[in-house]
């Protein structure tokens, strides 16, 4: 399983005009597009021989350990467009945590624990954006300003400030982390995403579903392309070059480059010639298409139950019916193809439960990288 570089170095002078990848990496993609199969990462041949124990997909103990891990990693909690103007406020949740996200007078984004200091009532509810001047508790009207300071006089509490959670905005998305050190873990991906100028992107469609499978089963489907010719034979297979891909780890995260059929002939490949996937450890996947991108995030609910959130982000709010129809077409394609993956997840999970071990092949380097990251996660 060893042999992964911790970071792929991109030297400034190696950068291509259109894509934030080194020439070496683009050449690796070209080679795979000619071979039509996923790249076998050097040193990985034969790694699948001993397989992966299936206990970690079904045990309560593994599940609780992984749930703890989620609290030590950044997670996606919302979209910037929903809190873009001063006073905009939404509630957000992730696993068992509830947060308030709001835009303050200085246009800074703030995140607070969504619980009143008095008797704990949730302060902001519902999915829609509210426009507020103060945070007012619906139970006894204790009132807080945009710094989370309690303004109501005469109230005795241990601490009169709502607990704050650090947030960052990346490509129209809002990520939260318990501490700013935790948020820094996203930096390698953040720096690369900055190169695509996605900051003004807005959500066009959002889906939340729960399914009967372990969260890792969901993530793993998006970490390998070996299944494209089979599972996506009536969708993505028409666009991409067979099962080709390069899985390129960035610490715990990764980029997965999937060449389209146009890649081979392109002298200088650009966004239109490949699908760029970023895996943000432990459970967020971004899929960059030529002019929009999709998000898939998994939240563990129990060893065999997972919530999956999918979203499509586009460059700006569509202004005409024609544009709406255009983005609806892209949305349907993204949801249809990812549904092909997600509908299989309970089937994979059901089979995993029957077995003691499973045997990913060397054509699925992402699975080994993911499990190694989980084993080593601090
Ligand atoms: S619980 Fe919030 S004011 Fe009483
Ligand atoms: Fe897939």
Comma- or semicolon-separated keywords:
378 residues, alpha+beta, Naphthalene 1,2-dioxygenase Alpha Subunit, Chain A, domain 1, Rieske Iron-sulfur Protein, 7-stranded antiparallel beta sheet, 4-stranded antiparallel beta sheet, 9 helices, 26% helix, 25% strand, globular, disordered N terminus, binds FE2/S2 (inorganic) cluster, binds fe (ii) ion
SSE order and pairing:
Blueprint: H1 23-35, E1 52-53, H2 55-58, H3 60-71, E2 75-79, E3 88-94, E4 97-103, E5 109-113, E6 130-131, E7 135-136, E8 143-144, E9 167-170, E10 173-176, H4 180-184, H5 187-194, E11 202-211, H6 215-221, H7 228-231, E12 246-250, E13 253-259, E14 274-280, E15 284-288, E16 293-302, E17 305-314, H8 321-352, E18 357-358, H9 365-376
Antiparallel strand pairs: 1-18, 2-10, 3-4, 3-6, 4-5, 7-8, 9-10, 11-17, 12-13, 13-14, 14-15, 15-16, 16-17
The structure holds FE2/S2 (inorganic) cluster and fe (ii) ion (FE2).
Please characterize this protein's 3D structure.
The N terminus is likely disordered. This protein is an alpha+beta fold and 378 residues long. The protein has a 7-stranded antiparallel sheet with strand order 11-17-16-15-14-13-12, with helices on both faces. A 4-stranded antiparallel sheet has the order 5-4-3-6, with no helix packed on it. It has a 3-stranded antiparallel sheet with strand order 2-10-9. It has 2 domains: 242 residues, Naphthalene 1,2-dioxygenase Alpha Subunit, Chain A, domain 1; 96 residues, Rieske [2Fe-2S] iron-sulphur domain (Rieske Iron-sulfur Protein). It is built from 9 helices and 18 strands. The protein binds FE2/S2 (inorganic) cluster and fe (ii) ion.
